[in-house]
């Protein structure tokens, strides 16, 4: 059984920073693309950032220049460094990964709340 466990969410003032982590554990052959999605109240879940196993990255326009996604393949962990946070970044953030077990399966974390408010 594979699990994704997120950490690092919380309450931060506008302009502040947070770093999210997501660690994959279990019977893992390899991890392909990993990403962070977010869902604000009353809105659909949207992609925030994605990173391939080779390290190529992609970002939503709304977070480009403020968020940085990275990964540590040795630790099966993906990170999201969030700077210059805005109230509109408030959402539940979910980790996502394409994992070979050996079948290729998409896994999701349980979500971590990020609230940006003064």
Q: How does this model look, in words?
A:
It is a single chain. With 118 residues, the protein is mainly beta. It has strands spanning 3-7, 10-12, 18-25, 30-39, 46-51, 57-59, 67-72, 77-82, 91-100, 104-108, 112-116. Strands 2, 4, 5, 6, 9, 10 and 11 form a 7-stranded mixed β-sheet that branches. It has a 4-stranded antiparallel β-sheet with strand order 1-3-8-7, with no helix packed on it. A hairpin with a 3-residue loop joins strand 9 (91-100) and strand 10 (104-108). The chain starts with a strand and ends with a strand.
Can I get a quick summary?
With 118 residues, the protein is mostly beta strands. It has no helices and eleven strands.
How is the secondary structure organized here?
Blueprint lengths: L2 E5 L2 E3 L5 E8 L4 E10 L6 E6 L5 E3 L7 E6 L4 E6 L8 E10 L3 E5 L3 E5 L2
Parallel strand pairs: 2-11
Antiparallel strand pairs: 1-3, 3-8, 4-5, 4-9, 5-6, 7-8, 9-10, 9-11
């Amino acid at each position: 059984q594979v699990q994704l466990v997120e950490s690092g969410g919380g309450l931060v003032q506008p302009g502040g920073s947070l770093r999210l982590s997501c660690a994959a554990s279990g019977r893992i052959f390899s991890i392909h693309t990993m990403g962070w999605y977010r869902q604000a109240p009353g809105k659909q879940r949207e992609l925030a950032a994605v990173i391939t196993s080779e390290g190529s990255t992609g970002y939503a326009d709304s977070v480009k220049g403020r968020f940085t996604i990275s990964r540590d393949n040795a630790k099966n962990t993906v990170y999201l460094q969030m700077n210059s946070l805005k109230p509109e970044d408030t959402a539940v953030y979910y980790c996502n990964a394409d994992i070979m077990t050996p079948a290729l399966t998409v896994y999701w974390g349980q979500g971590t709340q990020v609230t940006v408010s003064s």
